[in-house]
Design goal:
Chains A, B: InterPro entries: GHMP_kinase_C_dom, GHMP_kinase_C_sf, GHMP_kinase_N_dom, GHMP_knse_ATP-bd_CS, Mev_gal_kin, Ribosomal_Su5_D2-typ_SF, Ribsml_uS5_D2-typ_fold_subgr. 2 copies of one chain form a homodimer. Chain A is of the alpha+beta class. Chain A has 12 helices and 12 strands.
Chain lengths: 384, 384
């Protein structure tokens, strides 16, 4: 098998509107977050298989011969199931129930590697995304793994050609396998966003990519307040059960926010973008942030985020599970507004938060020539 | 005619839930606010009619003979109409369109005095309520005027007996006339609360007094940020027209908040009051405050009120029109909670706000013996 070296990136994910409401049958809008995960695959001929994940201090090398037993077991399996995951866990010596991010990253690597590849290589991954912050870092990783192995083995074309829908569907289906290993029962939204980019409408388990959306500049802030998605989802459910007549209309209103936002974003792709478009997007963000507080997933750290950015004329909401975690702040196009990013980011960092200037709605998985990737990222990928 | 001196008080009004939503056909709960207006009526035999309203720097005396012409004109009129108000305005020398609080207080006095009374007297009024803050100060004044004249002339009984429903209806109907002179087209809620006290359910123009409600301790805060109710009502209407699918569910949710609150308050009168009751009341306050922000009647001064009180574990919402104005903060019964009032009031005053520790749901119009009224109030009433 001829192996091509390759360099892949995939974006993270943010929920623009509809987090939590989606659990109760309402629309959610998931968007690509242009904090990207980069993966470099290099063939090697010394019979070694190495993976370097410096974000999570994970560096592992196996001899090809060690992996042989797993390959044959995998070939016998019809599909990814508990037995296989158990076997992979045994192989890497994990016996307890909970997987940390390092272990689950190794398991996902092994599964996709063994399924699609089989010879010596080094895979190095560097992500701009914080891990475990609800920003789809594991999906971006799985998408990169799937695309890299499919590309390196010639199953999908090289970067000189854009990937077609069929290629993307193949990448997405393998990435979904990786997500299953990492998360057990993922919705499939994160890997779809990592693959297609742009924006997805998510409703009652159905994922519909939206054809065209504008690229929106944002600040992404991580309050670093830890939270459990499971606990927060349960809290919302309890609140709906406690006050159904009060809460059900709020979910309906959130649904209407998602639909209104989708409509405005679609308009922005077919008519000249004006301040009015941004006024509406900002109003929707403010309203939804209030609703998220009402359903019980706010947090003082998120209130602070909203206040600090409001003091600069900017509008923020939590994204994802809430109760801490991350928030997004909409920025206007540079030509439409004075630049307030630098000052705002300083204010947010002074609160102890991590903060990135980035964008949502950008491209999904991509191949790169090394020369088109930021030097500091190539430096990290080539370090190992 | 034998004239009895009398001493009357009536409470102010706060909206507990449903402000603005009531304009769109939803339930509102209006409650008596135990910041009271006190009126002392004393007969005099020197042929003078004097009114002293030190809160608004208004001190007027007429000769009885001057008022004779008005009495005969009033007797000819079938009902309170524009012609009569015009005649009263001419009498006191007001020609321009807008009435200040002093002028409208004098007009209301003259109308009720001429309708129900006719001999020499001094009426002195002192109110604990701020004027023009949406707290029903004009209604409390009108209720006091009506009750005082009806009582002084023997149309309703003296303080040794409680007033019956019929007496209260008579007071309320005259107070409503006073409100019409002051406000043009009042809803009738403020004078009903001033008369009956307790809590009223207000829906589609219908006012239903609730039989029993618990007395709730609150802080009443006046941010002193001026606002126009008319402008705020129009703003809400515009927002509903702009985002109907988002806003109409929010009004439904507000409606459910009012109904849930009414249910909890009713329960509190028939079962032992627990912390759980207060937990729910606090949750409803927080949710409604978010909804009021969503419909566009919030204000940074109200956000500050909420934050300052939240820092002490207390829950606040705006009351009335919003956009500044007043807010209420629920306090727990002294035996259920540590005392945080003093510190909270200091914090709020440090923000430049006026702040009172008072209660809602207390009695309506009352007669007093001078000995049962706070000394400082009697001192003010007797000064003139």
């Amino acid at each position: 098998m001829e192996v091509r070296d390759c360099l892949i990136s995939a974006p993270g994910k943010a929920i623009l509107h509809g987090e939590h409401a989606v659990v109760h049958g309402k629309v959610a809008l998931a968007v690509s977050l242009n904090l990207r995960t980069y993966l470099q695959l290099k063939a090697r001929s010394d019979g070694k298989v190495c993976i370097n994940l410096p974000n999570i201090d994970t560096f592992v090398c196996w001899e090809l011969s060690e992996l042989k037993q797993l390959t044959s077991f995998l070939r016998e399996m019809q599909r990814l199931d508990a037995e296989l995951v158990k076997r992979l866990r045994e192989f890497i010596g994990v016996t307890n129930g909970n997987l940390d991010s390092s272990t689950s990253a190794i398991l996902a690597f092994l599964y996709i590697y063994l399924s699609l590849f089989g010879s010596g290589l080094t895979v190095s991954v560097w992500s701009e995304l914080p891990t475990g912050a609800g920003l789809g870092s594991s999906a971006a990783y799985s998408v990169c793994l799937a695309a890299a192995f499919l590309c390196a083995t010639g199953n999908i074309p090289t970067p000189l050609k854009e990937w077609c829908q069929e290629d993307l569907e193949l990448i997405n289906s393998w990435a979904f396998q990786g997500e299953k290993i990492i998360h057990g029962n993922p919705s499939g939204v994160d890997n779809a966003v990592g693959t297609w980019g742009g924006m997805l409408r998510f409703l009652a388990g159905k994922i519909i990519p939206l054809s065209r959306v504008p690229l929106l500049r944002i600040l992404l802030t991580n309050t670093k307040v830890p939270r459990s998605t499971k606990v927060l989802v349960a809290r919302v459910k309890d609140k709906i059960n406690k006050f159904p007549s009060i809460m059900i209309p709020v979910l309906d209103s959130v649904d209407a926010i998602s639909c209104t936002c989708e409509k405005v974003l679609t308009e922005m792709t077919c008519e000249p973008i004006t301040g009015d478009h941004y006024n509406i997007l900002e109003e929707l963000i403010d309203i939804n942030q209030h609703h998220l507080n009402v359903i019980g997933v706010g947090h003082p750290s998120l209130d602070t985020l909203c206040q600090v950015t409001a003091a600069r004329g900017l509008h923020s909401k939590l994204t994802g599970a809430g109760g801490g975690g991350c928030g997004i702040t909409l920025l206007r196009p540079v030509i439409l507004s004075p630049s307030v990013e630098a000052g705002t980011m300083k204010d947010l960092r002074d609160c102890g938060y991590d903060c990135w200037e980035t964008s949502i709605g950008g491209p999904g998985v991509q191949q790169h020539f090394p020369s088109s990737v930021k030097e500091e990222i190539m430096e990290v990928l080539n370090r190992y």
